[in-house]
Amino acid sequence: KGGNEEDAQGWETRRAIEPRWIMQYKNLKFWAQPTPFRHMGVFPEQANHWDWIADRIRSAHRPVRVLSLFGYTGLATLAAAGAGAEVTHVDASKKAIGWARENQAISGMDKKPVRWILDDALKFVQREVRRDVRYDGFILDPPKFGRGPKGEIWKLEESLPILLQQCRLLLTKLPLFAVLT
């Protein structure tokens, strides 16, 4: 079935399938599984972004800090970490962060410097601004609508401009990239 996240009715299959399975893209291994929102927890069309992010990090030839907001199952986060970046991964879903950490483990990246943060993206960024933290790269994959872990409301058309203004305050003097999907 097709649909969107506001219309979570699950999957219909012609026969029984495994509840989850491991897939691989280059050095990334990850769990795929049918979700109630009719996707698999991975979006293969993003692979060109993962490659581009990794190339930008490797070509920097310096330490790189990346902020991954709405990081979900962590594939962009792991692409950045696998290329040598120190990554802060933020998502409002405890379940999604658990899935992302499982992807980190099966990718053999347990020792890579990833901070896993369960928080509302905007609130986290605002705290980072107050702390005077800086990042070289930004990965943002916001939903159209969502709720933070404490019930915060995210509406893309209202919240994204505010978030981007705050992210701008976190830029290093020589930023490498911003990916917004």
Tell me about this structure:
This protein has about 180 residues and is α/β, with parallel strands linked by helices. The chain is about 35% helix and about 20% strand. The protein has helices at about 45-60, 75-80, 95-105, 120-130, 155-170, and strands spanning about 20-25, 30, 65-70, 85-90, 115-120, 135-140, 145, 155, 175-180. It has a five-stranded parallel β-sheet. Strands 1-2 form a two-stranded antiparallel sheet. It has a two-stranded antiparallel ribbon with strand order 7-8. The longest helix is centred in the first third of the chain and has 14 residues, at about 45-60. The chain is globular and about 55 Å long.
Which key terms come to mind for this protein?
22% strand; two-stranded antiparallel ribbon; single chain; disordered N terminus; alpha/beta; five-stranded parallel β-sheet; 181 residues
Q: Topology, please?
A:
Elements (H helix, E strand, L loop, with lengths): L20 E5 L2 E5 L14 H14 L4 E5 L5 H8 L3 E6 L2 H13 L7 E5 L2 H11 L5 E4 L4 E3 L5 E3 H13 L8 E4 L1
